[in-house]
Protein backbone atom coordinates (compact mmCIF):
# COMPACT_ATOMS: atom_id res chain seq x y z
CA UNK A 1 0.00 0.00 0.00
CA UNK A 2 1.58 3.28 -1.15
CA UNK A 3 1.43 6.66 0.56
CA UNK A 4 -1.38 8.00 -1.67
CA UNK A 5 -3.56 5.07 -0.70
CA UNK A 6 -3.01 5.43 3.05
CA UNK A 7 -3.30 9.19 3.26
CA UNK A 8 -6.77 10.43 4.39
CA UNK A 9 -8.58 13.14 2.51
CA UNK A 10 -9.76 16.24 4.39
CA UNK A 11 -13.41 15.08 4.23
CA UNK A 12 -12.53 11.61 5.50
CA UNK A 13 -10.46 13.04 8.31
CA UNK A 14 -13.30 15.38 9.31
CA UNK A 15 -15.81 12.53 9.20
CA UNK A 16 -13.54 10.36 11.31
CA UNK A 17 -13.07 13.11 13.90
CA UNK A 18 -16.83 13.65 14.04
CA UNK A 19 -17.46 9.92 14.46
CA UNK A 20 -14.94 9.70 17.30
CA UNK A 21 -16.41 12.75 19.00
CA UNK A 22 -19.94 11.32 18.77
CA UNK A 23 -18.73 8.00 20.14
CA UNK A 24 -17.27 9.79 23.12
CA UNK A 25 -20.54 11.60 23.73
CA UNK A 26 -22.55 8.39 23.48
CA UNK A 27 -20.20 6.65 25.88
CA UNK A 28 -20.79 9.42 28.42
CA UNK A 29 -24.57 9.50 27.87
CA UNK A 30 -24.87 5.76 28.29
CA UNK A 31 -23.60 6.08 31.85
CA UNK A 32 -26.91 7.56 33.07
CA UNK A 33 -29.42 6.62 30.35
CA UNK A 34 -30.60 3.44 32.16
CA UNK A 35 -31.11 5.45 35.34
CA UNK A 36 -33.12 8.06 33.43
CA UNK A 37 -35.28 5.35 31.88
CA UNK A 38 -35.84 3.90 35.32
CA UNK A 39 -36.96 7.26 36.71
CA UNK A 40 -39.42 7.77 33.85
CA UNK A 41 -40.77 4.24 34.25
CA UNK A 42 -41.21 4.65 38.01
CA UNK A 43 -42.92 8.03 37.59
CA UNK A 44 -45.32 6.53 35.05
CA UNK A 45 -45.96 3.64 37.43
CA UNK A 46 -46.83 5.99 40.27
CA UNK A 47 -49.40 7.89 38.20
CA UNK A 48 -50.71 4.61 36.84
CA UNK A 49 -51.24 3.47 40.43
CA UNK A 50 -53.22 6.63 41.19
CA UNK A 51 -55.32 6.13 38.06
CA UNK A 52 -56.03 2.46 38.84
CA UNK A 53 -56.93 3.32 42.45
CA UNK A 54 -59.56 5.76 41.22
CA UNK A 55 -61.19 2.97 39.19
CA UNK A 56 -61.32 0.36 41.96
CA UNK A 57 -64.42 0.65 44.09
CA UNK A 58 -63.05 -1.49 46.92
CA UNK A 59 -60.47 0.16 49.18
CA UNK A 60 -59.29 -3.02 50.90
CA UNK A 61 -55.89 -4.68 50.91
CA UNK A 62 -56.62 -6.73 47.80
CA UNK A 63 -57.39 -3.63 45.77
CA UNK A 64 -54.21 -1.98 47.05
CA UNK A 65 -52.04 -4.92 46.04
CA UNK A 66 -53.83 -5.17 42.69
CA UNK A 67 -53.10 -1.51 41.94
CA UNK A 68 -49.48 -1.88 43.06
CA UNK A 69 -49.02 -5.02 40.94
CA UNK A 70 -50.43 -3.31 37.88
CA UNK A 71 -48.30 -0.20 38.32
CA UNK A 72 -45.13 -2.28 38.88
CA UNK A 73 -45.90 -4.30 35.74
CA UNK A 74 -46.31 -1.07 33.79
CA UNK A 75 -43.01 0.34 35.09
CA UNK A 76 -41.11 -2.86 34.27
CA UNK A 77 -42.72 -3.12 30.84
CA UNK A 78 -41.85 0.49 29.96
CA UNK A 79 -38.26 0.12 31.14
CA UNK A 80 -37.66 -3.17 29.31
CA UNK A 81 -39.36 -2.05 26.10
CA UNK A 82 -37.40 1.17 25.75
CA UNK A 83 -34.16 -0.54 26.78
CA UNK A 84 -34.65 -2.95 23.89
CA UNK A 85 -35.37 -0.11 21.51
CA UNK A 86 -32.38 1.97 22.63
CA UNK A 87 -30.05 -0.97 22.08
CA UNK A 88 -31.45 -2.54 18.92
CA UNK A 89 -32.86 0.29 16.83
CA UNK A 90 -29.59 2.29 16.48
CA UNK A 91 -27.70 -0.91 15.60
CA UNK A 92 -29.91 -1.68 12.59
CA UNK A 93 -28.05 -1.22 9.29
CA UNK A 94 -30.61 -2.57 6.84
CA UNK A 95 -33.77 -0.73 5.82
CA UNK A 96 -35.88 -3.83 6.44
CA UNK A 97 -34.60 -4.16 10.00
CA UNK A 98 -35.09 -0.46 10.73
CA UNK A 99 -38.65 -0.50 9.36
CA UNK A 100 -39.49 -3.66 11.26
CA UNK A 101 -38.27 -2.24 14.56
CA UNK A 102 -40.09 1.04 13.83
CA UNK A 103 -43.35 -0.86 13.41
CA UNK A 104 -42.64 -2.75 16.61
CA UNK A 105 -41.99 0.53 18.39
CA UNK A 106 -45.31 1.96 17.14
CA UNK A 107 -47.19 -1.11 18.35
CA UNK A 108 -45.41 -0.98 21.70
CA UNK A 109 -46.13 2.74 22.05
CA UNK A 110 -49.83 2.12 21.38
CA UNK A 111 -49.81 -0.63 24.02
CA UNK A 112 -48.16 1.71 26.54
CA UNK A 113 -50.78 4.39 25.87
CA UNK A 114 -53.54 1.80 26.29
CA UNK A 115 -52.25 0.38 29.56
CA UNK A 116 -50.70 3.46 31.15
CA UNK A 117 -51.10 6.88 29.54
CA UNK A 118 -54.87 7.19 29.93
CA UNK A 119 -54.53 6.22 33.59
CA UNK A 120 -51.79 8.81 33.99
CA UNK A 121 -54.14 11.40 32.49
CA UNK A 122 -56.85 10.28 34.92
CA UNK A 123 -54.45 10.83 37.81
CA UNK A 124 -53.35 14.23 36.49
CA UNK A 125 -56.76 15.66 35.54
CA UNK A 126 -59.35 13.20 36.87
CA UNK A 127 -60.93 15.53 39.43
CA UNK A 128 -60.99 18.44 36.99
CA UNK A 129 -62.59 16.21 34.34
CA UNK A 130 -65.34 15.11 36.76
CA UNK A 131 -65.94 18.77 37.63
CA UNK A 132 -66.18 19.46 33.90
CA UNK A 133 -68.82 16.73 33.69
CA UNK A 134 -70.74 18.36 36.55
CA UNK A 135 -70.53 21.76 34.88
CA UNK A 136 -71.73 20.34 31.55
CA UNK A 137 -74.64 18.64 33.31
CA UNK A 138 -75.56 21.92 35.01
CA UNK A 139 -75.65 23.67 31.63
CA UNK A 140 -77.86 20.91 30.21
CA UNK A 141 -80.25 21.19 33.14
CA UNK A 142 -80.31 24.98 32.85
CA UNK A 143 -81.15 24.77 29.15
CA UNK A 144 -83.92 22.25 29.86
CA UNK A 145 -85.33 24.41 32.69
CA UNK A 146 -85.34 27.57 30.58
CA UNK A 147 -86.91 25.78 27.63
CA UNK A 148 -89.65 24.26 29.80
CA UNK A 149 -90.28 27.69 31.32
CA UNK A 150 -90.45 29.30 27.89
CA UNK A 151 -92.99 26.73 26.69
CA UNK A 152 -95.05 27.24 29.83
CA UNK A 153 -95.04 31.02 29.33
CA UNK A 154 -95.99 30.57 25.68
CA UNK A 155 -98.98 28.61 26.92
CA UNK A 156 -99.85 31.46 29.25
CA UNK A 157 -99.86 33.77 26.24
CA UNK A 158 -102.83 31.78 24.93
CA UNK A 159 -104.81 33.32 27.76
CA UNK A 160 -104.94 36.58 25.81
CA UNK A 161 -106.49 34.78 22.83
CA UNK A 162 -109.05 33.17 25.12
CA UNK A 163 -109.78 36.54 26.73
CA UNK A 164 -110.34 38.16 23.34
CA UNK A 165 -112.75 35.39 22.33
CA UNK A 166 -114.60 35.69 25.62
CA UNK A 167 -114.92 39.45 25.33
CA UNK A 168 -116.16 39.10 21.75
CA UNK A 169 -118.95 36.71 22.74
CA UNK A 170 -119.73 38.78 25.81
CA UNK A 171 -120.17 41.85 23.62
CA UNK A 172 -122.41 39.87 21.26
CA UNK A 173 -124.52 38.79 24.24
CA UNK A 174 -124.97 42.40 25.27
CA UNK A 175 -125.95 43.30 21.73
CA UNK A 176 -128.51 40.49 21.70
CA UNK A 177 -129.91 41.66 25.00
CA UNK A 178 -130.49 45.10 23.50
CA UNK A 179 -131.96 43.56 20.32
CA UNK A 180 -129.18 44.57 17.95
CA UNK A 181 -128.52 41.01 16.68
CA UNK A 182 -131.74 39.13 16.11
CA UNK A 183 -133.89 42.27 16.23
CA UNK A 184 -135.65 41.15 19.40
CA UNK A 185 -134.42 42.50 22.71
CA UNK A 186 -134.19 40.25 25.74
CA UNK A 187 -132.47 37.14 26.92
CA UNK A 188 -133.82 34.61 24.52
CA UNK A 189 -132.28 31.59 22.78
CA UNK A 190 -129.47 33.51 21.05
CA UNK A 191 -128.52 35.23 24.29
CA UNK A 192 -128.37 31.91 26.12
CA UNK A 193 -126.03 30.41 23.43
CA UNK A 194 -123.70 33.39 23.66
CA UNK A 195 -123.75 33.32 27.45
CA UNK A 196 -122.98 29.60 27.44
CA UNK A 197 -119.83 30.08 25.33
CA UNK A 198 -118.80 33.16 27.31
CA UNK A 199 -118.91 31.13 30.54
CA UNK A 200 -116.87 28.31 28.96
CA UNK A 201 -114.20 30.74 27.84
CA UNK A 202 -114.28 32.42 31.24
CA UNK A 203 -113.62 29.09 32.96
CA UNK A 204 -110.77 28.37 30.53
CA UNK A 205 -109.25 31.78 31.20
CA UNK A 206 -109.39 31.18 34.94
CA UNK A 207 -107.68 27.80 34.56
CA UNK A 208 -104.90 29.44 32.56
CA UNK A 209 -104.48 32.18 35.16
CA UNK A 210 -104.27 29.63 37.97
CA UNK A 211 -101.19 28.06 36.33
CA UNK A 212 -99.19 31.30 36.32
CA UNK A 213 -98.19 31.27 40.04
CA UNK A 214 -97.31 27.59 39.79
CA UNK A 215 -95.03 28.27 36.80
CA UNK A 216 -93.29 31.16 38.55
CA UNK A 217 -92.81 29.15 41.72
CA UNK A 218 -91.43 26.12 39.86
CA UNK A 219 -89.02 28.26 37.84
CA UNK A 220 -87.75 30.02 40.97
CA UNK A 221 -87.29 26.67 42.74
CA UNK A 222 -85.44 25.30 39.72
CA UNK A 223 -83.05 28.25 39.73
CA UNK A 224 -82.37 27.72 43.43
CA UNK A 225 -81.46 24.09 42.78
CA UNK A 226 -79.26 25.13 39.86
CA UNK A 227 -77.45 27.55 42.17
CA UNK A 228 -76.69 24.75 44.63
CA UNK A 229 -75.52 22.51 41.80
CA UNK A 230 -73.15 25.21 40.51
CA UNK A 231 -71.79 25.65 44.02
CA UNK A 232 -71.12 21.91 44.28
CA UNK A 233 -69.25 22.02 40.98
CA UNK A 234 -66.58 24.39 42.29
CA UNK A 235 -66.75 23.63 46.01
CA UNK A 236 -63.58 22.43 47.79
CA UNK A 237 -63.22 18.83 48.89
CA UNK A 238 -63.21 15.42 47.20
CA UNK A 239 -65.20 15.44 43.99
CA UNK A 240 -66.67 12.01 44.76
CA UNK A 241 -68.53 13.34 47.79
CA UNK A 242 -69.73 16.38 45.86
CA UNK A 243 -70.98 14.12 43.10
CA UNK A 244 -73.31 12.35 45.55
CA UNK A 245 -74.89 15.64 46.66
CA UNK A 246 -74.98 16.79 43.04
CA UNK A 247 -76.90 13.66 42.08
CA UNK A 248 -79.53 14.34 44.77
CA UNK A 249 -80.02 17.91 43.56
CA UNK A 250 -80.29 16.74 39.95
CA UNK A 251 -83.18 14.44 40.88
CA UNK A 252 -85.02 17.35 42.47
CA UNK A 253 -84.40 19.55 39.45
CA UNK A 254 -85.64 16.85 37.08
CA UNK A 255 -88.91 16.81 39.06
CA UNK A 256 -89.21 20.60 38.77
CA UNK A 257 -88.70 20.44 34.99
CA UNK A 258 -91.31 17.69 34.72
CA UNK A 259 -93.78 19.87 36.64
CA UNK A 260 -93.10 22.81 34.35
CA UNK A 261 -93.86 20.63 31.36
CA UNK A 262 -97.19 19.71 32.94
CA UNK A 263 -98.04 23.34 33.70
CA UNK A 264 -98.23 24.18 29.99
CA UNK A 265 -101.87 24.96 29.11
CA UNK A 266 -101.44 24.49 25.37
CA UNK A 267 -103.01 20.96 25.37
CA UNK A 268 -105.90 22.29 27.45
CA UNK A 269 -106.52 25.17 25.05
CA UNK A 270 -106.31 22.83 22.05
CA UNK A 271 -108.98 20.54 23.50
CA UNK A 272 -111.16 23.49 24.46
CA UNK A 273 -110.85 24.90 20.93
CA UNK A 274 -112.12 21.61 19.50
CA UNK A 275 -114.97 21.47 21.98
CA UNK A 276 -116.01 25.10 21.54
CA UNK A 277 -118.24 24.65 18.46
CA UNK A 278 -119.03 21.01 19.11
CA UNK A 279 -120.42 21.43 22.62
CA UNK A 280 -123.13 23.96 21.79
CA UNK A 281 -126.47 23.11 23.39
CA UNK A 282 -129.03 24.67 21.10
CA UNK A 283 -132.00 25.99 23.08
CA UNK A 284 -135.56 25.85 21.86
CA UNK A 285 -136.46 28.88 19.83
CA UNK A 286 -138.75 31.03 21.95
CA UNK A 287 -139.85 33.68 19.45
CA UNK A 288 -143.46 34.91 19.61
CA UNK A 289 -144.01 34.25 15.93
CA UNK A 290 -142.37 32.54 13.01
CA UNK A 291 -140.56 35.66 11.80
CA UNK A 292 -138.91 36.11 15.18
CA UNK A 293 -137.99 32.44 15.32
CA UNK A 294 -136.50 32.64 11.84
CA UNK A 295 -134.43 35.62 12.94
CA UNK A 296 -133.26 33.69 16.01
CA UNK A 297 -132.32 30.67 13.88
CA UNK A 298 -130.35 32.83 11.46
CA UNK A 299 -128.56 34.58 14.30
CA UNK A 300 -127.70 31.28 15.99
CA UNK A 301 -126.23 30.04 12.69
CA UNK A 302 -124.08 33.16 12.54
CA UNK A 303 -123.03 32.60 16.15
CA UNK A 304 -122.05 29.01 15.34
CA UNK A 305 -120.01 30.25 12.38
CA UNK A 306 -118.27 32.77 14.66
CA UNK A 307 -117.63 29.98 17.16
CA UNK A 308 -116.03 27.87 14.47
CA UNK A 309 -113.73 30.73 13.42
CA UNK A 310 -112.72 31.46 17.00
CA UNK A 311 -112.12 27.76 17.52
CA UNK A 312 -109.76 27.59 14.55
CA UNK A 313 -107.91 30.68 15.75
CA UNK A 314 -107.41 29.21 19.22
CA UNK A 315 -106.42 25.85 17.73
CA UNK A 316 -103.75 27.41 15.53
CA UNK A 317 -102.34 29.38 18.46
CA UNK A 318 -102.27 26.25 20.63
CA UNK A 319 -100.64 24.22 17.84
CA UNK A 320 -97.85 26.78 17.58
CA UNK A 321 -97.09 26.27 21.26
CA UNK A 322 -97.37 22.50 20.98
CA UNK A 323 -94.97 22.58 18.02
CA UNK A 324 -92.22 24.08 20.18
CA UNK A 325 -89.41 21.58 20.73
CA UNK A 326 -89.78 20.11 24.21
CA UNK A 327 -86.78 20.30 26.55
CA UNK A 328 -84.30 17.52 26.07
CA UNK A 329 -84.56 14.90 28.75
CA UNK A 330 -81.58 15.38 31.02
CA UNK A 331 -80.29 13.01 33.66
CA UNK A 332 -77.08 13.11 35.65
CA UNK A 333 -75.01 9.97 35.25
CA UNK A 334 -72.12 9.64 37.71
CA UNK A 335 -68.81 9.09 35.94
CA UNK A 336 -65.37 7.94 37.04
CA UNK A 337 -62.34 10.17 36.68
CA UNK A 338 -60.84 7.91 33.98
CA UNK A 339 -64.03 7.96 31.90
CA UNK A 340 -64.36 11.71 32.41
CA UNK A 341 -60.82 12.30 31.14
CA UNK A 342 -61.60 10.30 28.00
CA UNK A 343 -64.99 11.95 27.39
CA UNK A 344 -63.65 15.48 27.85
CA UNK A 345 -60.19 14.84 26.41
CA UNK A 346 -60.40 17.96 24.26
CA UNK A 347 -60.58 20.13 27.37
CA UNK A 348 -57.48 18.58 28.95
CA UNK A 349 -54.98 18.48 26.11
CA UNK A 350 -52.02 19.56 28.33
CA UNK A 351 -52.73 16.77 30.80
CA UNK A 352 -53.02 14.22 28.02
CA UNK A 353 -49.82 15.53 26.46
CA UNK A 354 -47.96 15.19 29.75
CA UNK A 355 -49.37 11.72 30.41
CA UNK A 356 -48.33 10.48 26.98
CA UNK A 357 -44.97 12.29 26.98
CA UNK A 358 -43.81 10.65 30.21
CA UNK A 359 -44.34 7.26 28.54
CA UNK A 360 -43.18 8.00 25.00
CA UNK A 361 -40.32 10.44 25.63
CA UNK A 362 -37.77 7.58 25.29
CA UNK A 363 -38.90 7.24 21.66
CA UNK A 364 -37.17 10.56 21.00
CA UNK A 365 -34.01 9.19 22.61
CA UNK A 366 -34.23 6.11 20.40
CA UNK A 367 -34.30 8.21 17.23
CA UNK A 368 -31.55 10.50 18.56
CA UNK A 369 -29.25 7.55 19.22
CA UNK A 370 -30.18 5.94 15.88
CA UNK A 371 -29.35 9.14 13.98
CA UNK A 372 -26.09 9.52 15.92
CA UNK A 373 -25.05 5.93 15.22
CA UNK A 374 -25.85 6.42 11.53
CA UNK A 375 -23.65 9.53 11.51
CA UNK A 376 -20.84 7.58 13.20
CA UNK A 377 -21.08 4.79 10.63
CA UNK A 378 -21.12 7.36 7.84
CA UNK A 379 -17.90 8.91 9.18
CA UNK A 380 -16.15 5.54 9.36
CA UNK A 381 -17.40 3.96 6.12
CA UNK A 382 -14.67 3.25 3.56
CA UNK A 383 -11.81 3.59 6.04
CA UNK A 384 -9.48 0.78 6.99
CA UNK A 385 -8.81 -0.24 10.57
CA UNK A 386 -5.36 1.37 10.48
CA UNK A 387 -6.89 4.69 9.43
CA UNK A 388 -9.41 4.70 12.23
CA UNK A 389 -6.95 3.94 15.01
CA UNK A 390 -6.51 6.69 17.55
CA UNK A 391 -3.36 7.33 19.57
CA UNK A 392 -4.97 5.66 22.55
CA UNK A 393 -5.91 2.67 20.40
CA UNK A 394 -2.30 2.51 19.11
CA UNK A 395 -0.86 2.65 22.63
CA UNK A 396 -3.22 -0.06 23.74
CA UNK A 397 -2.22 -2.19 20.74
CA UNK A 398 1.50 -1.67 21.48
CA UNK A 399 1.01 -2.58 25.12
CA UNK A 400 -0.91 -5.65 24.08
CA UNK A 401 1.87 -6.66 21.69
CA UNK A 402 4.45 -6.17 24.43
CA UNK A 403 2.39 -8.35 26.74
CA UNK A 404 2.16 -11.02 24.04
CA UNK A 405 5.91 -10.84 23.38
CA UNK A 406 6.68 -11.04 27.07
CA UNK A 407 4.39 -14.02 27.42
CA UNK A 408 5.95 -15.68 24.40
CA UNK A 409 9.52 -14.97 25.73
CA UNK A 410 8.61 -16.47 29.08
CA UNK A 411 7.20 -19.51 27.31
CA UNK A 412 10.36 -19.87 25.21
CA UNK A 413 12.56 -19.68 28.26
CA UNK A 414 10.47 -22.33 29.98
CA UNK A 415 10.80 -24.61 26.95
CA UNK A 416 14.57 -24.07 26.78
CA UNK A 417 14.85 -24.76 30.50
CA UNK A 418 12.97 -27.99 30.17
CA UNK A 419 15.07 -29.06 27.18
CA UNK A 420 18.24 -28.28 29.07
CA UNK A 421 17.07 -30.20 32.07
CA UNK A 422 16.24 -33.14 29.84
CA UNK A 423 19.70 -33.08 28.22
CA UNK A 424 21.57 -32.97 31.55
CA UNK A 425 19.49 -35.73 33.06
CA UNK A 426 20.06 -38.16 30.16
CA UNK A 427 23.89 -38.72 30.72
CA UNK A 428 23.24 -39.11 34.42
CA UNK A 429 20.75 -41.82 33.74
CA UNK A 430 23.26 -43.59 31.42
CA UNK A 431 26.01 -43.52 34.06
CA UNK A 432 23.64 -44.95 36.60
CA UNK A 433 22.73 -47.77 34.26
CA UNK A 434 26.44 -48.68 33.66
Automatic annotation (TrEMBL):
It comes from the Bacteria. Keywords: Membrane, Transmembrane, Transmembrane helix. The chain crosses the membrane at residues 26-50, 62-84, 96-119, 352-371. This is Uncharacterized protein. It comes from Roseibium aggregatum. The lineage of its organism: Bacteria, Pseudomonadati, Pseudomonadota, Alphaproteobacteria, Hyphomicrobiales.
Amino acid sequence: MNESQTKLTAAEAKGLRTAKELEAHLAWLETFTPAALGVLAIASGIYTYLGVSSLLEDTGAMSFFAAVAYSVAVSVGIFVFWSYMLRLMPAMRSAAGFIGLSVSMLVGSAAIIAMSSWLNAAALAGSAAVEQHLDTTVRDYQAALEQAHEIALSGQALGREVQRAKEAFEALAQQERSGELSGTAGEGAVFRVLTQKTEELQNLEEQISEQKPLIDSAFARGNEILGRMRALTVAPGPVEQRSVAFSEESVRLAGVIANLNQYSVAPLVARAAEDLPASVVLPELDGRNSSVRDAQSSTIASVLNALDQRSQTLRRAADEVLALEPPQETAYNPISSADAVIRYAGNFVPSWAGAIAIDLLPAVLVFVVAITQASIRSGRDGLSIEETLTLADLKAAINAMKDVEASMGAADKEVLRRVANAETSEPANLNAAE
